[in-house]
Amino acid sequence: MPTTVKAYAATSATEPLTPTTIERRDVGPRDVRIDIRYAGICHSDIHTARGEWGATNYPIVVGHEITGVVAEVGSEVTRFHVGDRVGVGCMVDSCGECQYCRRGDEQYCVKGNIQTYGGVGKDGVPTQGGYSQAIVVTEDFVLRIPDGLELDAAAPLLCAGITLYSPLKHWGAGPGTRVAVVGLGGLGHMGVQLAHALGAEVTVLSQSLKKQEEGLRLGADHYHATSDPDTFRRLAASFDLVINTVSASIDVDAYLSLLAVDGTMVNVGAPEHPQSVSAFSLLMRRISFAGSTIGGIRETQEMLDFCAEQGITALIETIGVEQVNEAYERVLASDVRYRFVIDTSTLA
Question: What is the value of pTM for the model shown?
Answer without folding.
Answer: 0.95
